[in-house]
Amino acid sequence: MRSDEELMIAYVAGNSAAFRELFERHAPGLLRSMKRDLRAQEEAGDLVQQCFLQLHRARLDFDPTQRLRPWLFTIALNLKREHFRRVKRRPETSLDGILEPQEAARGAQRFEAAQALARALEQIPQQQREVIELHWFDELSFHEIAEVVGATLSAVKVRAHRGYAKIREILADLELGTGVSIPVVPDPEAPRNPKSLADVEGKTP
Hints:
The protein contains 9 helices and no strands. By secondary structure, it is an all-alpha fold. The termini are far apart.
């Protein structure tokens, strides 16, 4: 199977079938990502269509040495941000895209866990929420997320650490463990434990 980057190179060279394959490969994931914040299915679908339209328009700017997926998610995130600026409201987390990745029990308990998680996501700062959604639900690496949100790798890890910690705090306050397995990201701002005084002073013995 050809990689995303190989398909994009083929599309830039004029192979329209390559574009269709990219759409079939990535549209479902982008739609799930959009539907987490847009409750209207039609709105989410429109933004996915716009995402691929922008991909088409910017195809000649694609750098074949870079991965395509972060580029696609950058377009999608910018479209989502612009949508909420235009309608002048905050994202409202839907259960779409929340239920599936969790390891909670089936049935009512699983649904309750997803509802609690959706409420928790709405209570954390937007920058933290974007990073967590890209990392936890869309399964992008922190390096990829840094590309998508236009921040340093260190800043992205800080946002993830603080966001996950806040979500655990909110769920604990609600007394809803409910089987949700929340990722743990070490605090990149925490001081290291030096092995010796020489380490602290930056010297070698």
